Amino acid sequence: MRLALFEPDIAPNAGALMRLSACLGVAMDLIEPAGFVLDDRRLRRAVMDYREHLDLTRHTDWAAFRRATEGRGRLVLLTTRATLPYTRFAFAETDILMVGRESAGVPDHVQAAVDARLLVPMTAGTRSLNVALAAAMVLGEALRQTERFPEGR
User: Fold this and answer.
1) Contact, 36 vs 60, CB < 8 A?
2) What is the widest separation between alpha-carbon atoms in the chain?
3) pLDDT in tens, 8-22
4) Which residues, other chains included, contact 9 with Cβ-Cβ below 8 Å and sequence gap of 6+?
5) What are the tens digits of pLDDT across the range 85-122?
6) Residue 105 DSSP one-character state
7) DSSP code of 115?
8) Type and span of the H or E element at 112
9) How far apart are the C-alpha atoms of 150 and 152, rounded to whole Å?
10) Engineered SS bond to 53: which of 22, 66, 108, 132, CB 3.0-4.6 Å?
11) Could you give the count of Cα atoms lying within 13 Å of 46 in the half-sphere of its Cβ?
12) CA-CA distance, 125 to 135, in Å (whole number)?
């Protein structure tokens, strides 16, 4: 299981997702360009001292990410444009869960390239959750289904 961030633009959210990945033992892919410098103090504050536990791969762009992950698992996008709730999806150990930019999601060519699109069900009149919260919810369900939660504690 992997977590991919597509061109993240808010450092604290990216930092929270890095910490989540480190704590759950899930490798992370960061697809650049990011909207911040990776040594941003706000990023460091969110990651805290968990960076040493993070398996992070940086990709210069979408094409580089696709080349690096081709054939490694399904690409599963969390998006408000989906119709399938994540609670009705059967996850696999090799899935790559991807979230888009906080400000704009992912472009149409990325939407078209993924294997599955999932949404987090919400009440009427609400637009979206914070990207880190949505990723945590879906990653937790994916790890539960695949029995891949870490056994450290």
Assistant:
1) no
2) 41
3) 999 889 989 999 999
4) 34, 35, 36, 101, 102, 103
5) 999 999 999 999 999 999 999 999 999 999 999 999 99
6) B
7) S
8) helix 108-113
9) 6
10) 22
11) 18
12) 21
